[in-house]
Amino acid sequence: MPVRLPPLTERPSRILLEGIVDYAGLFPPAGLAMQKAVRNFAHYRASGAGWMLGRFVCPASRLPEFSAAADPLLPRDAGAIPWRLSVTGSGDVTADLEAIRAFNERHRVCFDECGATVDGYEVKAGSVQEIVTLHHQLPESLAVWFEVPLSEEVGHLVEAIARVGRRAKMRTGGIVPDAFPPATHIVTFLRALLTCGVLSKATAGLHHPLRGAYRLTYENDAATCRMFGFLNVLLAAAVMTNGGTDEQVRLLLEETDPTALVCNDTHITWQGGEHHVPMTRDVLQQVRERMIASIGSCSFTEPVDESRALGWI
Predict the structure, then answer these.
(1) Could you tell me the residue ranges of all domains in the chain?
(2) Matching CATH number, 12-229+291-306, of 1.10.1060, 3.20.20, 2.60.40, 3.40.50
(3) 3-state secondary structure the chain
(4) From the first residue on, what is the mean pLDDT of each consecutive set of 10 residues in the chain (313 residues)?
């Protein structure tokens, strides 16, 4: 299904969730084989919820493997919307850029058309110097997402990302309890995004809509851990955009009650405790365009099915 920006007459939940899920089925805890993940992506694109699907996330070193699996499934018709990929770095930027160049050249049908394209690159950076150095190595035409460690000091890294005109990425979980940051660190990251005007993506532990205790892996006997929900993160950014305080944002990140988040045809409202915060279509559009572009998830069916169960789609 073609990905488009929704008009402001759309239901607010559609604005919030359009193209939101970057599918990371190759990564834990799903850890699917390439052929399975690629076939899933093709199926999800063609499904009724395909409008929620963003990019396919693939390690740079596995791009040739992706090509072999995806070739029979890629769009070939004139004017078709290509599959879009975001590539995770291997640690060797030169090799990664060559893999991306070769991939894009292979999949270009003609000057204006292609079946698949890599237009995003995700790379870790733990210091201002790393951000500056990597920025100079990477072409301006590539959307670069610098994954920075969350802490109370993350603001200066986001400021550096703003100075070089790139994008940020935060990791909000993993497959072990220690991978999940405190809500205050996410608040600090979001505040820095808003202050510095930096777009971001979030990933890991975000395949459920709402905060709660979920299994860390798909094993039947897997331990559970309190995870953040993607609605919590998106709406926390909306509350902040709407002028909310850091404490309000933290409380919304911790919200577990689905009845506290009300979505109607004109706006979304957080009714948590003493708080009654409406978020208009315009605010939600600002969040998606200026703060959070996508959520990385190893599952697409869980975000879709659980959003549907909540009545959001």
Answers:
(1) 12-229+291-306
(2) 3.20.20
(3) CCCCCCCCCCCHHHHHHCCCEEECCCCCCCCCCHHHHHHHHHHHHHCCCHHHEEEEEEEHHHHHHHHHHHCCCCCCCCCCCCEEEEEECCCCHHHHHHHHHHHHHHHECCCCCECEEEEEEEEECCCHHHHHHHHHHCCCCCEEEEECCCCCCCHHHHHHHHHHCCEEEEECCCCCHHHCCCHHHHHHHHHHHHHHCCCEEEECCCCCCCCEEEECCCCCCCCEEEECCHHHHHHHHHHHHCCCCHHHHHHHHCCCCHHHEEECCCEEEECCCCCCEEEEHHHHHHHHHHCEEEEEECCCHHHHHHHHHCCCC
(4) 50 96 97 98 97 98 97 84 96 98 86 81 98 97 97 98 98 96 98 98 96 95 96 98 96 96 94 88 97 98 97 94
Distance (Å, rounded) from C-alpha 265 to C-alpha 44? 26
What pTM was computed for the model? Answer: 0.94
Query: Which two tokens mark 110?
Result: 């003609």
